[in-house]
Structure formats: structure tokens, C-alpha cells
Amino acid sequence: MEKPSRPRSRLTDVVIEALSKRLEDRTYRSGDKLPSEHALCEEFQVSRTVVREAVASMRLSGQLVSKPGIGVFVTEDREKPIDFVVEPAATDARWALHIMELRAGLEIEACGLAAERRSAAELSAIVEAFDDFNRASRDMEAAVKADFAFHLAIARASNNPHFPSLLQAAVGDVMLDLNIKHGGKTPDELELYEARNAVEHEAILTAIMRRDPGAARAAMSRHLGDSIARYRKLLSQPAADPRR
Question: HTH gntR-type domain spans which residues (predicted)?
């Protein structure tokens, strides 16, 4: 009989969160070598087992790569560069609809799994992105960035490395969708749109906090479903505008 795998320790989550943060803020850049195992043990005051578990998890998610006899490195070109500048020409609604349908299939399940599996550190990352989005207010560029960060944090909290990898692989197309929805609005219209989005984000966050996978899937389904419906309406009635 196969023995169940040992659950990941809280200390491992702490190390993963800290190292992931350094990848996000580019303290460690693509191709950089990480400090030695001994140095990481000293820095985080943890055992070698904890560091090895953290590195193994991050290798599995595609963030790190080990080179035998050399060390551990940040994966080359692990993410496409993200351009958060809203381009006026980025308004291909049919392409954006295709991306939204893909996201629905991906993110609804990821959200349910996040409610089941998220660690305290992963929940903190979701909350941080949620707060950043709410603070963005009328800053369109900041709102687009925080919106994507919120969804990516949820995908990571699923603890299935393929969810964030797929979302990041499609980042350019996801940004197209966000550009369409955030762009072309007056400041007042943008504020109303962001307020509606914040309410939907809060419902998602609440379900994840309560570890309620059914409610989490339903909240994400409503959130993405509204956008899908608007794009379909636009394509059937050319005069309509999904951004409102």
C-alpha cells in the first residue's frame, strides 16, 4: 500500500513565500544563482530539509532549476515580460472572448482548489493583491496590474503549478482583456467599474478565506461570466460596448 505523502510544513511555506517574493520584485532575476543551501538555512533559521522541500516545490512550479554540481538558478525566461501600459488599439473583442472562455475553464477550478489548499502565506498574497486593487482607484495602470496579480495569486494558491504557468503563458492575451475592460472610460466610469470588480473580488476572497471551494468556484464563475456575457453581446450587437 502506498504511503500518503507528508504534508508540506509551515516553515516550507514561509521559505517559498519569501523566495517567490524575491522573484516577483526581481531581487533574483532570470538566470540568477540562488544563495547556497547553507546560506538559506542560516538566513531563514530552518533545517536543510525545509530548504530542500521549498526548492523542490519551486522547481516543480517552474520557478527554479537545479544544475547538478553548480547550484540552483532562477529559470531562464520563466515569465513573459508584462506590459501594463494600456494600448488604445488593444480592443479585439473576439480574441478577448476566446481568452475569457479559456480563463473560465482554468480559473474557476483553480479558485476552488485554492479554497481547499491555500496556505496562510498564499492567502496573504491574495489579500495583498486585493488591497492593491482597491487602492488603485482611478489609476488605470495600477488597477490593471493589481487585477492580474489577484488572479495569479489565486492560481498559485491552488498548489497545482500548471494553473499559474498557464495563466502566465497567456499573460499578453489576459492583459488584452483587462485593457479592453479598464480602458476607454471616463474617470467616473472607471471608478464605478472598479467598484463592481472590487465587490466580485471580495466575494472570491471571502470564499477562499472560509475554505469554501463551492462558494469560491461560484464567485469566480460569476466574476468571469459577466465579462463573457458582455463580449458575446458586443459581438452579436456591434454597437454595444463591453466596457460598460
Answer: 9-77
My answer on whether 131 and 49 are in the same domain is: no
Q: Which of 49-58, 73-82, 191-200 has the lowest mean pLDDT?
A: 73-82
What separation in angstroms does the CA of 160 have from each of 32, 107, 167, 180? 24, 12, 12, 29
Cell of 195: 467598484
Number of structural domains found in the chain: 2
CA distance 30 to 66: 13
Query: What is the DSSP code string of 27-73?
Result: SS-TTPBPPPHHHHHHHHT--HHHHHHHHHHHHHTTSEEEETTTEEE
166-195 mean pLDDT: 67
Asked whether residue 160 falls in the same domain as residue 224, the answer is yes
Q: Distance from CA of residue 93 to its chain's centroid?
A: 23
Distance between start and end Cα atoms, the chain: 57
- One domain, residues 227 and 110: yes
| Within-domain flag for 139 | yes
Domain extent, residue 115, equals: 93-236
pLDDT of residue 134: 87
Give the burial class of 94: count Cβ atoms within 10 A of its Cβ; 0-12 exposed, 13-18 middle, 19 or more buried: exposed
Do the domain assignments include residue 86? no
In a domain, 81, yes or no: no
Closest by Cα among 162, 99, 86, 164 to 125: 164
The CATH number assigned to the domain holding 33 equals 1.10.10.10
pTM of the model: 0.60
Which residue blocks in 137-212 are alpha helix, DSSP H?
140-157, 162-169, 171-182, 187-209
pLDDT, residue 90, reads: 41
What is the rounded distance in angstroms from the CA atom of residue 16 to the CA atom of residue 21?
8
